[in-house]
Specification:
- It is a single chain.
- By secondary structure, the chain is of the alpha/beta class.
- It has 3 domains: 39 residues, no CATH class; 234 residues, TIM Barrel, CATH 3.20.20; 46 residues, no CATH class.
- Helices cover 24% and strands 24% of the residues.
- It has 8 helices and 20 strands.
- It is globular.
- It starts with 11 loop residues before the first strand and ends in a 14-residue tail after the last strand.
Length: 336
């Protein structure tokens, strides 16, 4: 008879002593029977790595695609968004710490077909896996992405990019657009403050770009931690080496969770945006009250998309072309 209980995970190896070695991310957790990995959502059950939170959502919402943030993908559209619990980082400034650093949230059972139907009912052309870290639920996310793709919906992933190569390739093969948090250019900061690995994140971004996924990146700027110009130069240079058209969102931090550092001044964000624009064509300031954001045509300078908070005017686009001069833009304005 088939075993009951949580489904079995992929991306792991068994050992003779009953331990398992998870291969999902950079942690490579060796997990004892009855214990869970660093993410809290992958558990050793009698020598099998199982997924006790498979198909359980901590949040379901219809969001503007710009909230992800994605500025060059289906502008002005809504995305049916699902959040989970758990994370493979422990960022002390996490804005969603109640679901990323705990598994105690109220959870709603969902399945891929339900998500597709809900997205269609809401008129959303995409489904976004977001809020907490979706990579640690890779098996369920992939099942949802397959169902969405079969239904003609686009797949969006909002992630910290901390996925090992096998998982990264598998997830990204089903993904249409991704926003990746590139939190710092300092390996020590990633390791000591976040429990992360910068090289893993860089490899994930490079794989996403090579795979033809639409890529955008976000850097949350924290005073005294990653607000030096050299940090943003490194980030912008890395992205520009892939493509100078990759959008970078330089966002203002606010005190949250365990950090009490004062909020990032708007002047700091504007300084870093200016620095990043020396290498990248599209750099946007985020989390600044009253900030208006525009994307201009590189050929004629006409405004393609204007944004104020989540009010979006994409009237400068005709399909993905500039409506003024007809030039191709870097903005994806229709599903594949």
């Amino acid at each position: 008879m088939p075993r009951s209980g949580p489904p079995e995970a992929r991306y792991y190896d068994k050992a003779m002593d009953g331990t398992v070695s998870c291969r999902l991310c950079h942690h490579r957790c060796r997990i004892l029977p009855g214990s869970s990995g660093a993410c809290r959502v992958r558990r050793n059950d009698g020598g099998r790595l199982v997924l006790p939170f498979y198909g359980l959502a901590s949040a379901l919402s219809v969001d503007p695609i710009e909230k992800k943030p994605l500025y060059h993908f289906l502008p002005g559209s809504s995305s049916y968004s699902i959040g989970y619990v758990g994370c493979n980082l422990h960022c002390p400034f996490c804005q969603n710490y109640s679901i990323s650093q705990s598994t105690e949230a109220h959870l709603t059972p969902v399945n891929p077909a339900m998500l597709v139907q809900e997205a269609r009912t809401a008129g959303c052309p995409s489904i976004a896996h977001t809020y907490s870290e979706p990579v640690v639920h890779a098996e369920f996310v992939e099942a949802c992405m397959k169902a969405a793709r079969a239904a003609g919906l686009a797949n969006v992933l909002v992630t910290n990019g901390c996925a090992a190569p096998d998982a990264a390739v598998s997830l990204l093969s089903l993904c249409d657009a991704v926003n990746i948090d590139l939190k710092s250019w300092d390996e020590a900061f990633y390791r000591s403050e976040l429990g992360g690995d910068l090289e893993t994140v860089k490899a994930f971004i490079a794989e996403a770009f090579r795979s033809g996924v639409h890529v955008e990146a976000t850097t949350l700027v924290i005073p005294g931690k990653n607000d030096e110009t050299s940090h943003i130069d490194g980030i912008a240079g890395f992205l520009a080496a892939l493509s100078p058209d990759i959008p970078l969102h330089v966002s203002s931090y606010r005190p949250m969770y365990r950090y009490t550092i004062p909020a990032t001044p708007a002047a700091t964000i504007h300084r870093l945006v200016k620095a990043a624009r020396r290498r990248l064509r599209y750099v946007y300031a985020g989390n600044i009250a009253g900030e208006r954001s525009i994307t201009e045509c590189r050929s004629c300078g006409a405004v393609l998309v204007a944004r104020h908070v989540y009010a979006v005017d994409a009237g400068g686009l005709s399909g993905s072309r500039c409506s003024s001069c007809g030039s191709e833009s870097p903005i994806i304005n229709r599903c594949k």
